[in-house]
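# step 3/5: fold
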Amino acid sequence: MSQVNFLPGITRRTVVTGRLEMAGLEAGPTSGVPVILVHGNISSSWFFQELMLKLADEGGFHVYAPDMRGYGDTQTLPVDATRGVRDFADDLASFVQALDLASFHLLGWSLGGNIALQYASEYPETVRSLALQAPGSPYGFGGTKGAEGALCYPDGAGCGGGGVNPDFRQRIKDGDRSADSPNSPRNVMNTFYFKPPFKVSPEMEEVYVSAMLSTKEGDQNWPGDMTPSANWPNVAPGTTGVNNTLAPTYLNQSAFAAINPKPDVLWYRGDSDQIVSDTSFFDFGFLGQIGAVPGWPGAEVFPPQPMIAQIRGLLAKYQANGGKYQEVVLSECGHAPHLEKAEDVAKMLLAFFRAH
């Protein structure tokens, strides 16, 4: 088990499910209405501690934050990317069943937002409400254009495990805690997870770096394998690993618009998010447009992915089918609103969960 100091009031727990052993964090009275928080990529439940305590102490909720497979202290199993994010959603379902939770509030952050969308698509009757914090596009990360998520190339070129900076990948593998390179996990967090100059306390920074370094590097886990492509930028998705689960050749969550029953949705994000954005610094389309990756075929062929329009388009269809959603944009905020705008987000979530 990882050696991390957790905040008072946070309990570590391992749940043996029908699929795998899932570690995670827990807070709040056992009599409280359950809330489940799902973390994102290169992360773990450890990022949620302060929010968990707010929901528990001020709302009386019983909060669970599981680590997904290959993150934190949860069992490491291969990720079948050809199922989209269903490996993760099925793991979440097995976690819920092991705890015998009939219904709960569900929040997903970044990749966790896609996992939450998938879970809600398959088990909508268990979801009291759905909160999406800076979720990924329902049509994956990279390689698509237009609000409907049309493929730029049939093979999904421009996304998947081959799109990760190799130096950053090696630093995750090596457990690098330094601040000596723009590619160190610490500097990537402070530059891209948050909007500079925001920084967390030195003590929590160490915890969050540890959370990033809990990511299990490899072709079967993060980031996954890759396939060479004749199409720009000459990499296409492989079939295993986390980043390939977000390949648009495997992930299409448009079915969410038609689920029944329809839990109310709260979608919130920072206005300065550099990860999930229409100008994402992790999207080949945008990097090509600004000249950071040579050979860009142009906006007609491979534009920056309109991630925000794609998310909004799906939720608009959800609303047209009888669902309800609210979009909240937080100013001067990056990819981690629950840390950067902690008070505002806690207040908003407490009101949203209490209303349902």
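# step 4/5: annotate
Residues 197 and 241 are 32 Å apart (CA to CA).
# step 5/5: archive (pending)
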